[in-house]
């Protein structure tokens, strides 16, 4: 197999938009894996990274994460389709601003491979030109039914060598290798002879029996020349094509212009972001997003897939303007038409606010869709000040009135408030929002992109903040809003996973005070991705210089708000760094039963470091792994990868970023990996829950501690003279309760925690 073997940074830009759909996205992933076969992936040769883009770019993995071909291909297989609009220009601007994540900073040639259908929502010409002006070689690969003229704009010159078609993965990999060989790769591979052969047009006919005429399409080098016409289809696997010709290792540098019969999905019959899946020559079915599926083409489905009491809090102040207020009314009506059944109970209400707050439509007031829509039409714009904080406090007190079926039975449906605003509040929102959340209101914020920071203060969680780019984009957020509303009963990611998690933050002089504050803010914002309580996630925080200090233990704080306050008190140490002493401290004094660790719960440590002082950390990290505790290493700046890899144990648990400013862009990636691991099976006896040299013995779904000279559930009490040692069988997730006489009782965690 011929491979490009040179020092080269290759970044894939993978289109994950709704116009591609899940089916073609999976084919794109398969194709990207095929292209990797043409690359000699190694730490000092070709490095590969990947960004998925739709409405926004999302870093799937940086170039320095996986340094073997097998690792890269396995990671590509695990990438999940995101969906959204096709913002190719925005993705290119991200690369212009951030460079190649984890790359070698232009010290080696850079190659960008864009796999897309070329149907961007905005102009790509300017950012594409700027990318190529930075001497980045750009390949544009067409997938599905591409808009060739846009791919030609994206690709480097000469176009015929840099535009490929994913319809034939082997041909395209051949073309990629041919083009790279002419520029950045080694011209020849030992033992291989490369010859150039002219292209020839050939008709491939497996069977001569004519089955009929079908619409065909042809890609062309000429702009606006993608042509559709009738061509014969023969029974069997027959098609006409111009492509790469040759045999064995003979390569032909020519443009692939395939002919192909349209499949039934090329007319894009699925609406509202649905994914078309072909079934044979002329049939298909649609995979519909949440909230759609009312018919075979993904029309709005008339029911929310969850039961909630839902209150919309609409901003009708002067800041949103009359036009914005009318837009919110239209959005509200369209959302309810898609989400609420005609015959289902209307547990929906609407409140309005400016300087004052009114609830013109009480939750549950309307029993049918028609009367609800009529009441929404009657809402009037007021145009006064914007007191969002006051409005949140008011609806927390008066927005939901219990409507029990029986007088002595309370309505216990989850209560959700959706804030619609496009205007900065003139009063503080943080305390009022906390007041609402503390009363078990689930807050979701919807607003334009410049409102993101304030809406996140309101919701307390970036995942419950929905922003739109322009007025029309607001209506594209209906499926996302439906998912967020129903996540109150089905939390995403680590929100639903039991996890004991410790952060170890480098507070040494090598990091410096300014960068330490950035690390502290990163840790703080990471907390928002977890549901903090005794039965789901517990978090401990350790800072280290030459010695390690526990800021708070696993069982110190039992709510997100308490954690967020405590992290503000984290001290900067300013001495030398020893990551090894921090990991030893976590093993012996943090991940222990007496400090709140829960047997039967996954455990992980996240080390945030600049790479200094990690030389002594490999052995303690291995000790943690041997005891069932994962170690994630997040390093900022240049550091010896081999040393860091010994600490992390695997490239899957090593994340590198070039600067502290860029760290926030890796947060989703880090949290995603932690959440994946939180679902793994655990060994109840790792780490050993028994204290004072007690031996942990596994039973079916339980464990017991065999004590010598000690007694109690975890061998925590010394045996007094005349007593005999005892062992007690404990179920998983057992909580040891403290009393005035010491550790005496254990209890099983509530039934909704994860069991093994």
From TrEMBL:
Record-linked PROSITE patterns: EGF_2, EGF_3, VWFA
Leader peptide range in chain numbering: none
SUPFAM superfamilies xrefs: EGF/Laminin, vWA-like
GO terms classed as biological process: calcium-independent cell-matrix adhesion
Localization per Swiss-Prot or TrEMBL: Secreted
Domain VWFA as annotated: residue spans: 9-180, 309-485, 500-674
The keyword Repeat is annotated on this UniProt entry: yes
Subunit structure: Forms monomers and multimers.
Protein name: von Willebrand factor A domain-containing protein 2
Origin species: Fregetta grallaria
Lineage of origin: Eukaryota, Metazoa, Chordata, Craniata, Vertebrata
